[in-house]
Recover the amino acids of this structure.
């Protein structure tokens, strides 16, 4: 769970990279430190398209996290607002 700023509500995002890592998106595939990120949790209907297909390599600062929503085309996440600090992470989602 990621804490919103000001009046924004908390939102559920995946941490895809931690401080010191480099994140890049090429042809809709997310790469962390040059390795493709396995994302079997993304249903085919939510696979990236359009603007979500590319993102220049971004280095995640120390003590920060790069988060992404599963609905890559509709999510506001670190691609938009940059890496977040630990104090913006307020919980963890557990699936059964």
């Amino acid at each position: 769970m990621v804490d919103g700023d000001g009046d924004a509500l908390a939102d559920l995002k995946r941490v895809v990279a931690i401080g010191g890592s480099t994140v890049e998106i090429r042809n809709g595939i997310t790469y962390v430190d040059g390795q493709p990120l396995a994302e079997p949790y993304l249903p085919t209907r939510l696979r990236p398209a359009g603007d979500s297909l590319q993102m220049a390599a971004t280095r995640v600062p120390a003590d920060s996290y790069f988060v992404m929503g599963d609905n890559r085309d509709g999510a506001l996440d670190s691609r938009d607002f940059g890496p977040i600090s630990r104090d913006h992470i307020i919980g963890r989602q557990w699936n059964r």
Remarks:
- The domain at 14-88 is CATH 2.10.109.10 (Umud Fragment, subunit A).
